[in-house]
């Protein structure tokens, strides 16, 4: 089945809420019905047909030809299927997604994969701050799935992470893994200050750790079976991550200012 | 009983009668092959028969590091019991006492399926609050801190209700030496089959049993019809040239796996011939009314 292709006509005049354009909501809709879906965020009405040239296909696979930093909420609440964005997108791609595969072949704004609970989100470029994080007032961030950033991520990546795996191949801004509840965060590039700030449980793996906060305590160098298993599981996604996890790792435990059952690993 | 002959070995027109069992499989890994085998051997000790041991367990095969989740050498262990509850109890007890304790070990699910038996989900409490849960995609692991580092254990493993227990071959030789020779070759051939175990010592049982006994307390007793020393005294099943009978019992995850193993064993026995091996091969059954699986020897011949 050919994918549904949405080709950008011109840069939109306002921020757009593209949450309605996900496979399970477009399933069974005609091209004309899709064109009438409203995506504006201001009083000025904008429909999908105004923004995109629509080439019909199976809604299980949606392809955006061309992106914009004004494309917000792409793949929000996504449950299944695949969305590929050939270009940038704005804030919250993959927000609350629970399944399927969302690929952004470009950069994206803050809150990518916010509170996602399943599926796979890959950002080929850079991501903004608060990767996978909860919105204001929410108790937990990402609770499952796999979130990959091939470029750099902004500050507080993995804030309030509860479950699932976040892998950043580039560098991470300050406070990566802040307030982590559990789950796994891997940073292969440089890492900003105070990783794991106030983390309770969970695992942070850093290829290039900064000086850790004083509430993290040294637990020695180990070669753990779990690291080998994760190395094998991550190899299809990132050889560099697999290599990092197959090395002997120093284990620091913290944040002792919180529950103190989290851990930060880095190469010995 | 009409007899077929293959390469001089008489084959009974009989069948092995087997029963449905609950089965599970785990993969034990360790820093090297020796310690993976050690953990597996310890775990499957005293597990020859459900009657006295609660469970029948054994080593299915070895897996090289390339094929295990943590890249270390592994051994696949199969366990069979008559009920899911018994299997669960035995699995956790044995994994807890024999694998958790074994240096450098880790323990993984080795059977897919929707029916699951808690493994790490039960053993994790040994961690006294320091256990760590790790999930990746649909896999769930527990990390339990122990004195040599960490014991990694998958949360659950698969349970199959389609397992088959009690496939068997009765190997009859002129002497103990020739019967043993045939039985050993058959065991070696059957060990190559996947998804089966031979739960008895070295795969061989010399004390085959019949149902019932003259003593009220005994549910099973010696199979006098196959005891060579009683040949003249009881309604014997043995011919005059049979001086020793050895049995191989097979449990498998599927009916097909048991049939495959029996086929391999039978082929090895037939190939050896009667002079240095078995003069006759039979199979144990209870008339066909007790067990739903019938493995007819004539269908399994090479």
Walk me through the structure.
The complex is a heterodimer of chains A (268) and B (302). Chain A is mainly β. Chain A has helices at residues 23-26, 31-35, 48-51, 225-234, 239-245; strands at residues 3-8, 16-17, 52-55, 58-65, 71-72, 82-86, 101-104, 120-123, 143-149, 163-168, 184-190, 203-208, 217-222, 249-254, 262-267. In chain A, a hairpin with a 7-residue loop joins β14 (249-254) and β15. In chain A, α4 (225-234) packs antiparallel against α5. The radius of gyration of chain A is 19 Å and the shape is elongated. The mean pLDDT of chain A is 96. In chain B, 47% of the residues are buried. Helix content of chain B is 24%, strand content 37%. Chain B is built from seven helices and 18 strands. With 302 residues, chain B is of the alpha+beta class. Chain B has helices at residues 33-43, 50-53, 84-99, 120-123, 176-191, 255-272, 297-300, and strands at residues 3-6, 9-12, 15-29, 56-63, 74-81, 106-109, 116-118, 132-136, 139-146, 149-154, 156-173, 196-197, 204-205, 209-211, 220-222, 244-252, 278-282, 293-296. In chain B, the strands form two sheets. Chain B has a 16-stranded mixed β-sheet that branches. Chain B has a two-stranded antiparallel ribbon with strand order 14-15. Classes of the chains: A mainly beta (268), B alpha+beta (302). Chain A binds chain B through residues 144, 146, 163-165, 182, 184, 201, 203, 222-226, 228-233, 246, 261, 263, and chain B through 29, 69-72, 106, 130, 132-137, 139, 141, 143, 149-150, 152.
């Amino acid at each position: 089945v050919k994918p549904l292709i949405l080709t950008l006509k011109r840069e939109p005049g306002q921020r757009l809420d593209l949450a309605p354009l996900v496979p399970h909501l477009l399933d069974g809709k005609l091209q004309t019905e899709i064109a009438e879906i409203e995506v504006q965020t201001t009083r000025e009405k904008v429909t999908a047909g105004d923004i995109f040239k629509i080439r019909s296909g199976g809604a299980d696979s949606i392809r955006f030809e061309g992106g914009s930093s004004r494309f917000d909420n792409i793949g929000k609440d996504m449950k299944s299927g695949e969305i590929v964005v050939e270009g940038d997108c704005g804030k919250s791609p993959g927000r609350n997604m629970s399944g399927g595969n969302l690929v952004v072949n470009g950069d994206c704004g803050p809150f990518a994969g916010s509170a996602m609970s399943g599926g796979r989100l890959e950002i080929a470029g850079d991501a903004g701050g608060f990767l996978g994080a909860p919105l204001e007032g929410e108790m937990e961030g990402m609770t499952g799935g796999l979130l990959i950033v091939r470029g750099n991520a902004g500050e507080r990546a993995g804030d309030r992470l509860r479950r699932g795996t976040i892998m950043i191949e580039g560098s991470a801004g300050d406070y990566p893994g802040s307030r982590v509840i559990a789950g796994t965060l891997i940073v292969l590039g440089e890492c900003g200050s105070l990783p794991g700030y106030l983390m309770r449980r969970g695992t942070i793996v850093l290829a290039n750790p900064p000086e850790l906060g004083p509430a993290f305590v040294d637990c020695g160098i180990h070669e753990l079976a779990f690291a080998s298993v994760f190395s094998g599981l991550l190899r299809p996604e990132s050889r560099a991550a697999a290599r990092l996890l197959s090395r002997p790792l120093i284990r620091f435990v913290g944040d002792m200012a919180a529950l103190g059952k989290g851990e930060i690993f880095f190469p010995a | 009983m009409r007899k077929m002959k293959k390469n001089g070995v008489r084959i009974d027109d009989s069948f092995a009668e087997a029963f449905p069992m609950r089965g599970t499989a785990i993969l034990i890994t360790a820093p090297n092959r020796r310690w993976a085998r050690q953990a597996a051997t310890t775990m499957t000790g005293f597990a020859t028969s459900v009657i006295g041991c609660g469970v029948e367990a054994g080593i299915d095969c070895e897996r090289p590091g390339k094929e295990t989740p943590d890249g270390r050498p592994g051994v696949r262990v199969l366990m069979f019991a008559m009920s899911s509850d018994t299997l669960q109890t035995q699995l956790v007890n044995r994994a807890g006492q024999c694998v958790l304790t074994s240096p450098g070990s880790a323990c993984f699910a080795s059977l897919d399926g929707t029916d699951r038996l808690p493994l790490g989900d039960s053993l994790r409490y040994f961690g006294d609050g320091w256990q760590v849960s790790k999930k990746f995609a649909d896999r769930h692991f527990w990390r339990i801190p122990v004195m040599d580092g960490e014991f990694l254990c998958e949360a659950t493993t698969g349970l199959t209700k389609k397992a088959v227990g009690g496939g068997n071959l009765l190997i009859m030789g002129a002497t103990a030496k020739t019967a043993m020779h045939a039985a050993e070759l058959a065991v070696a051939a059957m060990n190559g089959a996947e998804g089966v175990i031979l739960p008895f010592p070295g795969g061989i049982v010399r004390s085959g049993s019949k149902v019932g006994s003259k003593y009220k307390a005994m549910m099973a007793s010696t199979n006098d019809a196959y005891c060579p020393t009683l040949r003249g005294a009881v309604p014997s099943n043995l011919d005059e040239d049979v001086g020793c009978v050895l049995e191989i019992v097979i449990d498998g995850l599927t009916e097909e796996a048991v049939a495959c193993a029996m086929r391999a064993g039978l082929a090895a026995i037939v190939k050896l011939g009667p002079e240095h091996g078995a003069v006759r091969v039979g199979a144990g059954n209870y008339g066909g009314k007790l067990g739903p699986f019938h493995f007819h020897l004539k269908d399994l011949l090479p």
